[in-house]
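User: Structure with (~{Z})-2-methylbut-2-enedioic acid, tokens only please.
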Amino acid sequence: MKPVIFQPYQNEPKKPLSAIQQEVLRLKKERNAVILAHNYVANEIQEVADFVGDSLGLSYSARDAKADVIVFCGVDFMAETAKILNPAKTVLMPDPASGCSLEESCPAAELAAFKKQYPGAKVVSYINCSGAVKALSDVICTSGNAVKIVEHFPKDEQIIFAPDRYLGSWVEEQTGRKMILWDGCCCAHASYNAETLKKLREELNAPIVCHPECQKSARDVCDCVCSTEKMIKWARENPSETIIVATVAQMIHRLRREVPNKTFVAAPPPNADRLSCRHMDKNTIEKLRDCLKNMSPQVSVDEEIAQKARAAIEKMLEWSK
Ligand code: CIZ
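Assistant:
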């Protein structure tokens, strides 16, 4: 597949907001809402959001939101996290069918049974999981703070890491400690293969930054492995004028705006010209407008689950400071 190349943003003429984007901003004001958008959603949504970031940044923004309504453009576990952290607010989602393959790979009942095999082990769960799995966890982490969260435990503490085995194995490499890994993965990131990335790197003579949800063989041919938020600093500081990005391609919108003088290349997985997340793609500007108009669909979380999950998420926010 031919990679998609994005020329420096600074050379592009600025486009005015579309009619539908303006309508979203008008409705947002009318509803006293704040729009939070993940780095992986469409550019036209990122352009009207009050905050664009990764799960960690979005969690702080949701917790601290003062508006009456939080509209969360991302996937279900992120919107659920916002509701858990700020239960008094109305939380809307453009499409509640936006799920996550990692979340699906770890049903709460199976994790509960797994935990029984390791009495005394602490459970660190990647934020890409259901509220019910969060409720079974001692602490939550994101890709941006996973190393820090795991290092918070004494060296001899036994840790179950769920649900991403690739993020877990990367954390093991970074910390030098063994963990008990749940056998889940992100089907999008796991599709990258080392051969394609290596070839692209040689052809373009440019460094690759990839996400830790990629398989180890793919990570090993990359120049930097980090969370989406950390990719921005790395791309800014790397001397190369061209950067190859191995994560969901919408991340490049954020990178281009933050680092406008560089060329970004979307690293293609084996069967497509760029990596996409079918769940994040369910967020469209039309659905964003409609959810503000109709004040629906709203996110709700069972109170018992929310209470336990909140403790694990708040511990992460505290340990990440
Ligand atoms: O932490 C997140 O939001 C995800 C899913 C990826 C990243 O690295 O930002």
